[in-house]
Amino acid sequence: MANTEQSGAAAMGPTGRPITEFPVPAPLSSHGPARIISLCNQKGGVGKTTTSINLAAALAAYGRRVLAIDFDPQGALSAGLGVNSHDVPTIYDLLLGSVKDPREAIQHTEVDGLDVIPANIDLSAAEVHLINEVAREQILAGVLRKVSDDYDVILIDCQPSLGLLTVNALTASHGVVIPLACEFFALRGVALLIETIEKIKDRLNPVITMDGIIATMFDSRTLHSREVLDRVVEVFGDQCLETVIGRTVKFPDASVAAKPITTFAPDHAAAKAYMQLARELVARGAVA
Ligand SMILES: Nc1ncnc2c1ncn2[C@@H]1O[C@H](COP(=O)(O)OP(=O)(O)OP(=O)(O)O)[C@@H](O)[C@H]1O
Ligand SMILES: [Mg+2]
Fold first, then answer.
1. pLDDT at 146
2. For burial by CB atoms within 10 Å, which of 63, 69, 171, 273 has the most?
3. What local confidence, expressed as pLDDT, does residue 184 receive?
4. Which atom of ligand 1 is nearest to the CA of 158?
């Protein structure tokens, strides 16, 4: 390993592939319509919200106009970006139609170019209310269509379930990014998730594509973390993104500060990893 430079071999990244330098995205001369991406995995605690927050902030840092949708009644994305989610219009009001214009629910964040539609515990009642609606799977798509032209990318932070809300998110999306934590049972449930995405592609949303799997909470010091990552690459090949997010307490710390890591600790390796993820997704064409 130490003499890779002398031997001329490319340095290998954690996914066992040569490290690619993804270029800094060129500035955009105009904005919109947005590409909509769901961050989705029905397994809890794998880094969906952390990835939504920090990918959104990284893309905004590259001059993209970003709207992050909190689509989890826990409201963790709203809290993590320091956005008020109580006594304000939320995504729940937009889904139920009590607020018609999504702009009434959009809040700006401290990050230039990053806006949020918040959620709170009300959203846990949405599935019950929507179950008898006409075209109940397409309600979020209809909401987002109204603001799509104002943004380059819309990221949806899904809740850990494959229920009607997540089906709405996937039906509204052009792409899906699946965060996978490098720990025991990482792959458990992923087959069901991919099957669900395939069904949605067949029945509701023919354009949806897999934008990639992002490995999170990777600890290079443990053999276990490396074994899990090797297995993910073996199963998913190029669908496993080259960027890997390391495990660090900086993430919980940044959540407490209600800031993305890219502003809380911009020089930290984890902030750089999310900047790289943004560049990789632009290089792959998942984001303009
Ligand atoms: N790379 C990381 N290193 C260390 N801790 C992390 C990392 N990513 C996320 N965390 C922490 O792990 C916990 C779960 O992360 P997160 O909330 O992003 O997952 P999630 O998939 O959105 O969870 P849920 O399914 O409950 O919505 C949080 O406390 C978060 O701060
Ligand atoms: Mg979450």
1. 98
2. 69
3. 85
4. 27
Percent over 90 (pLDDT), the chain: 93
Instruction: Give the environment of ion ligand 2: residues with CB less than 5 A.
Output: 48-49, 76
Distance from residue 4's CA to the centre of ligand 1 (Å): 35
Q: What is the pTM of this model?
A: 0.96
Assess whether the C-beta atom of 247 lies below 6 angstroms from ligand 1: yes
Among residues 269, 209, 268, 281, the alpha carbon closest in space to that of 242 is found at 281
Judge whether residue 9 has pLDDT over 90.
no
pLDDT band of 7, cuts 50, 70, 90 = low
Q: Strand 107-108 relative to strand 153-158: parallel, antiparallel, unpaired? A: unpaired
pLDDT class of 238 with cuts at 50, 70, 90: very high
Please tell me the number of Cα atoms within 13 Å of 72 on its side-chain side: 27
Q: Is the CB of 72 under 6 A from ligand 1?
A: yes
Q: Token pair of 69, please?
A: 């949708």
User: Any idea which of 60-69, 96-105, 180-189, 242-251 has the lowest mean pLDDT?
Assistant: 180-189
Residues near 130 by beta carbon (within 8 Å), at least 6 away in sequence: 95, 96, 136, 139, 164, 168
Residue of the nearest CA to atom 25 in ligand 1? Answer: 44
Q: Is 262 in the pocket of ligand 1 (CB under 6 A)?
A: no
Contact 180, 213 (CB under 8 A): yes
Identify the helix (H) or strand (E) that includes residue 241: strand 240-246
For ligand 1, the distance from its centroid to the CA atom of residue 245, given in whole angstroms, is 11
Across the chain, what does the average pLDDT equal? Answer: 95
Give the chain's domains with CATH numbers.
30-283 (3.40.50.300)
